[in-house]
């Protein structure tokens, strides 16, 4: 059933329509600087489609809670335990109730964690409840950032994984992502790239205009028009909107946000006793605890400190203690490379290595380098992640020198860093003709104890066109790599995580 909703008017004066059924299959990205009218656009979309499709809104500022009075949305305060949020999300899907998850009042880390838990619960719902839902995420750059910023790596990975699930694999589960962002440059590319419909508003920064123009298929000169757009005006493109870029003026809305843009107001007349009014202390002032005058400096990254210590130690050896330097000559490039390979294997072979964060393992790596008196950081953080993923895959030197493996490394750059280890482990099994790893082995390679997530990773790789998953006549799973002309042999998805457990199970 095709349902077209009214989003406003086009530059030609015609009605600007949006096909809801097509939107559910192709997703939507809204971009515009602060004050461009993004929230107004989202509100128009939500109001016009409320009677046609279930809605879930991830609301960082609590602006959309007013939808509850007019359209019956349930307001969910995110200040709850993870178990409570998961239970609420499951019942939201089961009973097909529209809701607003308000994150207002939480710190950024807690906002990202709560949103991730809620989105993952929607994603993990039982197949019987995969009804279509319009999932709207305002300020999406907060939940799918290009870099960690001030939040921990664990929270960033959790939030980015949830957003990736929504935009990349949510369609099969009935989840249609609608994400809005102020800065395209701050939004993870693999999340933004999954949208097929776009509404681009007023944008001033060159980097954001360039990305917006690239998504819309425009050249550099055409991108300049984004600077001239008025508030509430957007350029629309996509199968649910228009086949060619089309200027749209968003229509009016029934509800309003609790917050609004500031308006100029004349100042009141100055009271005669203004000094007494201002400087006379209130009893509450004396009861308030004293606030620090200066914020505590942000702690430096441990990796930076380790690098400086390594550099300092090297300088001391060269200047202050020449006799010790003569006893421990600097490593040659060949020796350093051999040490890096051996150290990465040691770290990868640790029993809990997969469940420790990359930053923690990197600090361990730098400390080992310092003990060997290697100056500076032997590897950068991105190189360390990739080399560690290769070490964990189990590929030997001969395989790593093959053309197929080099092709696999090139393909691995198309996916997020956290999934490279899983992908290369599957590649190694395919090139060696080994059985397909079990769900437990795939989950452990990612650093989780949840074997259910393994199927999601395989589905994601398959949607990206990297692999083909099928079963043999015994029901064993096989993963094939079309670009490498290789495939694994049949493996039991429900098998143990490694060969040791398999032998123990057989005995």
From TrEMBL:
Signal peptide: none annotated. Residues 253-262 have a biased composition (Polar residues). SMART domains: AAA. Residues 253-272, 280-332, 485-507 are annotated as: Disordered. This is AAA+ ATPase domain-containing protein. Residues 24-366 form the AAA+ ATPase domain. It comes from Martelella mediterranea. InterPro entries: AAA+_ATPase (IPR003593), ATPase_Atu1862_pred (IPR014588), HerA-like (IPR008571), HerA_central (IPR002789), P-loop_NTPase (IPR027417). Gene3D superfamilies: P-loop containing nucleotide triphosphate hydrolases.
């Amino acid at each position: 059933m095709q349902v077209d909703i009214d989003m406003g008017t086009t530059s030609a004066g015609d009605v600007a329509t949006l096909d809801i059924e097509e939107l559910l299959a192709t997703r939507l990205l809204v971009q515009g600087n602060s004050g461009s009218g993004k929230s107004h656009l989202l509100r128009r979309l939500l109001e016009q489609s409320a009677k046609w499709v279930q809605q879930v809104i991830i609301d960082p500022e609590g602006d959309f809670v007013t939808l509850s009075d007019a359209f019956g949305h349930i307001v969910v305060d995110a200040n709850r335990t993870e178990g409570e949020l998961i239970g609420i999300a499951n019942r939201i899907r089961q009973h097909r109730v529209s809701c607003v998850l308000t994150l207002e009042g939480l710190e950024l880390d807690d906002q990202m964690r709560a949103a991730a838990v809620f989105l993952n619960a929607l994603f993990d719902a039982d197949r019987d409840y995969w009804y279509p839902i319009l999932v709207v995420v305002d300020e999406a750059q907060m939940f799918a950032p290009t870099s960690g910023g001030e939040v921990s790596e664990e929270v960033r990975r959790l939030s980015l994984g949830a957003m990736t699930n929504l935009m990349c694999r949510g369609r099969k589960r009935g989840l249609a992502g609608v994400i809005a962002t102020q800065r395209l440059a701050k939004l993870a590319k693999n999340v933004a790239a999954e949208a097929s419909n776009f509404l681009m508003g007023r944008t001033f920064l060159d980097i954001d205009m360039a990305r917006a123009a690239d998504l819309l298929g425009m050249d550099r000169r055409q991108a300049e028009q984004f600077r001239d757009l008025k508030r509430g005006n957007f350029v629309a493109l996509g199968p649910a909107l228009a086949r060619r870029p089309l200027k749209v003026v968003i229509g009016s809305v029934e509800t309003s946000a609790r917050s609004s843009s500031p308006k100029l107001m004349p100042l009141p007349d100055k009271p005669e006793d203004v000094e007494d009014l201002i400087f006379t202390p209130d009893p509450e002032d004396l009861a308030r605890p004293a606030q620090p005058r200066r914020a505590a400096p942000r702690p430096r990254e441990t990796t930076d400190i380790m690098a400086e210590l390594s550099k300092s130690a090297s300088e001391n050896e060269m200047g202050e203690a020449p006799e010790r330097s003569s006893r421990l000559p600097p490593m040659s490039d060949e020796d350093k490379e051999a040490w890096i390979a051996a150290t990465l294997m040691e770290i990868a072979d640790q029993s809990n290595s997969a469940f420790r964060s990359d930053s923690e393992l990197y600090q361990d790596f730098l400390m080992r380098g310092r003990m060997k008196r290697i100056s500076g950081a032997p590897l950068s953080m991105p190189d360390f992640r990739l080399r560690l993923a290769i070490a964990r895959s189990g590929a030997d030197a001969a395989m790593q020198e093959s053309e197929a493996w080099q092709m696999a490394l090139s393909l691995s750059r198309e996916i997020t860093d956290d999934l490279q280890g899983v992908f290369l482990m599957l590649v190694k099994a395919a090139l060696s003709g080994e059985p397909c790893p079990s769900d437990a082995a795939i989950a452990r390679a990612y650093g989780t104890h949840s074997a259910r997530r393994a199927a999601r990773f395989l589905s994601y790789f398959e949607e990206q066109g990297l692999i083909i998953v099928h079963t043999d006549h015994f029901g064993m799973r096989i993963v094939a790599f079309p670009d490498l002309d290789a495939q694994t042999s049949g493996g039991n998805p429900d098998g143990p995580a490694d060969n040791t457990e398999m032998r123990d199970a057989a005995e």
